[in-house]
Design a protein that fits this description.
By secondary structure, the protein is α+β, with helices and mostly antiparallel strands. About 25% of the residues lie in helices and about 35% in strands.
Length: about 140
Amino acid sequence: MSETDRRVGVVTACAGANALDALVVPGRATPCRIAEDELLLICEPDLAREIAREVETRLTVVDGDALVRDTTDAWAAVAIDDAHAGRTFARLSRLPLPDRGFLQGEVAHVPAKVLVDGDGVLVLVPSALEDHVRSRVAAAGEDIP
């Protein structure tokens, strides 16, 4: 099976595009721009509150209306991290999987955020959809040699 349990921290930052463009992201977080005025920062779960405070401090200097929140509880992460991660993912989505990077779209028939790095594929979905995605990932990787 290619699916593993993985906890991640998620910080959501909403601000003007110029403020987000100028943001110096803490090195302990991976930025994922999901809209012109919205950014997700993926980090270790125990760092989410600290990163939220840092980002809020930095953003509100440029955009007084910026909103930054630790939204970890709203998200679930499913990691596909074996040698066949790309093949498993292809059975779940039509999204073209890059070698590295971030994309968003439909995975297992639900909206998802996808991070790809040297360790595999991380699929982020709203926490209410975790069981659905986890079971679909497990089924997709079952018969891959």
